[in-house]
Amino acid sequence: MIYGYACGAMNGLSLSEAKDWRQRVSQYFEENSNNIRIISPTRGKSDTDNLGTDYDNTFRSKNRYIYRRDMNDVRRCDFLFVYLPISEKGVSIGSVVEIGWATVLGKPIFLTTNNVLLQKHPLVSQPTVWIGETLEEAVEVVVDFYE
Questions:
Q1: CATH value at residue 111
Q2: Of 4, 72, 130, 140, which residue has the fewest beta carbons closer than 10 angstroms?
């Protein structure tokens, strides 16, 4: 089995907003591949877990736990599936850090974004295998890359 980590914004989002695209991507992979699955940082979270900047609500929301769990997820995945659309909340700092971890670990990175600054920034664009604007196309590229 090949695992991809669903890297993308969570800060300031509701749990359903953070889960929505990740669930769609997971479903796309299940429909288009027998051996690619998605690891989501939203797994195990409940509506009481804060996805904003006040990270002291539950043990899953504590800074140290988030850092270690996300780093472990990036380590154990085979690739990073990044979704960073333009947002009024700005660029996801955590996602950029996860891109850095994946780069150092030599993980393939597939980036979906309509943010031209991210598409052109050398520290984001250079380590990526592919950059595009739709989740469906990204899934197709990943499936082609691994199968």
A1: 3.40.50.450
A2: 72
Residue type, 65: Y
Write out the residue range of the structural domain in which residue 111 sits. Answer: 2-146
> What are the percentages of helix, strand and coil residues in the chain, rounded to 5?
45, 15, 35
Total number of domains in the chain? 1
Order across the sheet with 109-112: list the strands.
36-39, 2-8, 79-83, 109-112, 128-132
Q: What is the mean pLDDT of each run of 10 residues along the chain (147 residues)?
A: 95 85 96 96 71 55 82 98 88 92 98 94 94 96 96
pTM: 0.90
Distances (CA, A) of 73 to 54, 69, 109: 22, 6, 14
Q: What is the DSSP letter of 141?
A: H
